[in-house]
Design goal:
The radius of gyration is 20 Å and the shape is globular. It starts with a strand and ends in a 9-residue tail after the last helix. Helix content is 47%, strand content 16%. It is an alpha/beta fold and 263 residues long. The chain folds into 2 domains: 3-203, 2-enoyl-CoA Hydratase, Chain A, domain 1; 207-254, Lyase 2-enoyl-coa Hydratase, Chain  A, domain 2, CATH 1.10.12. Strand 2, helix 1 (26-41) and strand 3 form a beta-alpha-beta unit. It has helices at residues 26-41, 64-72, 90-101, 117-123, 149-156, 158-167, 173-178, 191-203, 207-220, 225-240, 243-254; strands at 3-8, 11-16, 47-52, 57-59, 106-110, 113-115, 127-131, 135-137, 170-172, 184-186. A 6-stranded mixed beta sheet has the order 1-2-3-5-7-10, with helices on both faces. Strands 4-6-8-9 form a 4-stranded mixed beta sheet.
Length: 263
């Protein structure tokens, strides 16, 4: 299976395992989409970590060979191109939005090269931690396709996004951190440890609060300051109606570990 999910200590670890370059083809994209939906539908995971196998490459982006086959089918017979009746862009869009809308916060743990669709994917997650060896880029312009700019804009802003988009230049983890795109850059050997430390800290919070909080942040992201804060106030009211909200306050006041009941 190119995608595996392991849940322990309320942390869902999603691993992309599609050697040699962890390309995001249609199958792996569908499996990732299903993983995000399943994690959100259950109650076991309070937070998710998105990682990839291998030492050097998080994801080289879309599966170029598959993309070429899809475009070639536009010239094929109706029978040969039947499976291509659905817009081939639907699969990656579904994946990116599944990550963005996943009810639990997602931490991307990037150990190496992260390009194209891989970069778009992590841009849809909540927090990115990178190895000092990681690099980032949008190579689409250099290989005759387009895409990814709007997702990168969430991380680095318009001017830098456009330079990376037009030039296909890659950027180091340190530069991405300087631009505010990354939570932190850590020594390569400590990436897993540092990611887990953060995941455990988030997982200790109210699972209801985390889910309502993420929904609130997503809905408020592109609104005006006043409208965005109104959304947050509305969700504060929703959260306050749960017993876990009172438990958060009581455990903080009593200096003890909270006992979440999902109620």
């Amino acid at each position: 299976m190119p995608v595996t999910v392991d849940i322990s200590d309320h942390i869902a670890t999603i691993t992309i395992d599609q050697p040699p370059v962890n390309a995001l083809g249609s199958q792996i994209s569908r499996e990732l989409t299903e993983a995000f939906f399943e994690i959100g539908a259950g109650k076991e995971a309070h937070v998710a970590v998105l990682r990839a196998s291998g030492e050097k490459i998080f994801s080289a982006g879309a599966d170029i060979k598959e993309t070429e086959r899809r475009y070639a089918l536009k010239e094929a017979s109706p029978e040969e191109s039947a499976y291509n009746l659905v817009d081939p862009g639907t699969t990656p869009r579904n994946l990116f939005m599944a990550a963005f809308d996943c009810p639990v916060p997602i931490i991307s743990s990037v150990q190496g090269i992260c390009l194209g669709a891989g970069l778009a994917l992590i841009a849809c997650t909540d927090i990115i931690i990178a190895s000092e060896r990681a690099t980032f880029g949008l190579p689409e312009m250099g290989v005759g396709v387009l895409g990814g700019g709007r997702f990168l804009q969430r991380l680095v802003g318009v001017p830098k996004m456009r330079r990376m988009f037009y030039t296909s230049e890659t950027v180091t983890a340190d530069e991405m951190y300087r631009l505010g795109a990354l939570d932190s850059v850590v020594e390569h050997e400590t990436l897993e440890e540092k990611t887990r430390e953060l995941a455990l800290k988030i997982a200790s919070k109210s699972p209801i609060g985390l889910r309502l909080g993420k929904l609130s942040l997503n809905r408020a992201e592109h609104l005006s300051l006043a409208d965005g804060y109104r959304i947050e106030q509305d969700y504060t009211g929703k959260a306050s109606g749960f017993k876990d909200s009172a438990e958060a306050r009581n455990s903080w006041r009593e200096k003890r570990e909270p006992n979440w009941t999902w109620s």
